[in-house]
Write a structure and sequence with these properties.
There is one protein chain. The protein is mainly α and about 240 residues long. The chain is about 75% helix and about 0% strand. The protein has 12 helices and no strands. The chain is globular and about 60 Å long.
């Protein structure tokens, strides 16, 4: 199932890719779970992915980070004031963001309306800034998203665009605490006393797919390298 879901990320439409991102955070690795349970599921899921699905997941995470950078640039332009040069920067970032959302023409118009709102509503601007601030926890991001949704309300005509923007930019999958948990999980599973190597290998195999593997099966060392690479990447992002 995870492979099939992530393979869909290769579809051409933004709507299909957005659906994959929503399924990742709601079904494959539910963000409603605590850090340890979430990282357990993430590690298990990753180790079962094929090469195409791994590539899709990595691309998904990279793309979300790129969109967050564009949103951060937009918020910075709004905070600094809307002079002629700032307005050009703002419109450029609006254009870049809208291209990443379903129905880019409508998204472009909605994001311009949002920008005008943020100019006059500094508390809403602060909530958006929380989402793109390095070092914030998943809980802080979740609270900021909740505040944004409450302020804009469901009756606001730009809500569909805002929901899509939140799904693509809010970093609720992992934070610094989660990455520490993930690395510890990998370490515990792959580092074992020599006298208990076979037992630990069985535990690892059961953890990965719920049953013991035969000698012909193997667990890729990519799980370990991915955890290390993820740690470096997330620490750099979190500052």
């Amino acid at each position: 199932m995870p492979n099939k879901v992530l393979h869909t990320y290769y579809q051409n439409t933004s709507q299909d890719r957005l659906l994959v991102e929503r399924l990742l955070l709601s079904c494959l690795v539910p963000v409603s779970l605590g850090a340890k349970d979430r990282m357990n599921i993430l590690l298990r899921t990753y180790c079962l992915l094929d090469a195409a699905a791994i590539k899709a997941l990595n691309e998904l995470l990279r793309y979300q980070q790129t969109i967050r950078m564009h949103l951060a640039a937009l918020l910075k332009a709004i905070e600094q004031g809307i002079g002629e040069e700032d307005r050009k920067k703002l419109l450029n970032q609006v254009s870049m963001l809208s291209k990443s959302l379903p129905d880019s023409k409508t998204a472009n118009s909605d994001l311009k309306r949002l920008s005008n709102t943020l100019v006059h509503d500094r508390s809403l601007l602060k909530a958006f800034q929380t989402i793109v601030t390095p070092g914030v926890s998943c809980q802080q991001v979740a609270r900021a998203v909740s505040e944004i949704m409450k302020k804009l309300t469901n009756k606001n005509p730009i809500m569909d665009t805002i929901r899509a923007l939140m799904d693509r930019t809010a970093p609720v999958l992992a934070d610094a605490t989660c990455i520490t948990v993930l690395v510890n999980l990998v370490s515990q599973l792959l580092t074992a006393p020599t006298e208990a190597e076979s037992d630990d290998e069985d535990k690892f195999n059961i953890f990965i797919n719920g049953q013991k593997r035969t000698s012909s099966d193997s667990v890729s060392s990519d799980c370990v390298s991915w955890a290390v690479q993820s740690t470096r990447s997330v620490r750099a992002t979190l500052g």
